[in-house]
């Protein structure tokens, strides 16, 4: 227990400030104060009470935490995802996916998954995936006699791919906090994302065979027609990800290119973007980016306080002292992340827990890139689990189903997503191997 307590009086004062900030955070959250505001208030009160920082220093840190070129990619990818939803790109991605996979049993479930994987190559956001593709996917599945609860559950499960497959916004945040290459962090999620997509397709096919769901007739003509019509939309993720992996442009530059590209083809080619929709895109993008920026700044401020007070070192010493078994240590780390994902925003969780947990997993031999994928895949579960899963609530609004009914239908999908997480943990070659293949060939 001695490892929990700092040696010097100044360290003890600062540790008390951290503890008070945490206590106040949970008190504010319990009375429905937004998470980022709760944390900022808790930190401000604790720092004033224990005189760790001056308030002007807090304001400076708050500003400087967002003064990062890499973070510009987050609002731009968000805007690109919203533009895809309103500009007809999402619809054409779905149509092409259906033409390709229509021959499979329960084909629309597989189409749902493939569409999310392709859409993820531009949006980087699970919430954007549900909001943009969700209405299309759920309506098409219900129109062809798939049960509404199943269609909704499949849509939510496939949306988790958006934060694993590049260009994941969560991976950008992780790379910024962990001080690793953003391009490599994005590449690390490519094969793990495809692995989870494959597991979801296997589950859907199993359901389809048992329940005798329909399949569409494969047609080369339809593949050619939807492919030609959707080619500009399908080229978007190829341009963005190819440019990042080949080294033509940085992830931040890629986010700007993605936004401009989506706006151009939505306005000039598909002609589905008008001034009214553009205003809506700007409003939705600005509102969402503001929320994320506030969470980032408050989380980074708290992370700075914990790092300054040596809490990551204390936690590393305690956990590695508790057990020298790497398997047990990784199990404890994942339990912490699963719990965090259920109650906290995933971006906020990455900011807070990366400085705490990264030194621990590095001490037992895990590479930062591999751990980043583990963390993001773990927290992605929180997006579709109660009590605060953002995608769960968006899916409920779109489908009109109560949360309880969706959760019951989600149970087999939770199992498959957990199975995917275990596979990612046990097979570092999926994340590290692809990074080495892409970046060592240049």
Give keywords.
disordered N terminus, single chain, mainly alpha, 79% helix
Task: Record the SSE blueprint.
Elements: H1 9-30, H2 35-50, H3 55-64, H4 73-86, H5 89-101, H6 107-123, H7 126-143, H8 148-159, H9 169-178, H10 182-188, H11 190-211, H12 220-246, H13 251-269, H14 275-308, H15 311-322, H16 326-343, H17 346-363, H18 368-382, H19 390-399, H20 403-426, H21 429-439
SS-derived structural category: mainly alpha
The major pleated sheet works out as: none
CA radius of gyration is 22 Å
DSSP summary: helix tally: 21
* SSE pattern, N- to C-terminal: HHHHHHHHHHHHHHHHHHHHH
Percent of residues in helices: over 70%
Count of extended strands? 0
Low-confidence stretches: 1-14
As a percent range, the share of strand residues is under 5%
Quick one: overall form? globular
Terminal residue distance: 49 Å
Mean pLDDT across the residues is 81
Would you summarize the structure shown here?
With 442 residues, this protein is mostly helical.
What does this structure look like?
The chain has 442 residues and is mostly helical. Among the domains are: 1-64, no CATH class; 69-170 and 180-287, no CATH class. The chain contains 21 helices and no strands. The longest helix has 34 residues, at 275-308. It is globular. The chain starts with 8 loop residues before the first helix and ends with a helix. Residues 1-14 have low confidence and may be disordered.
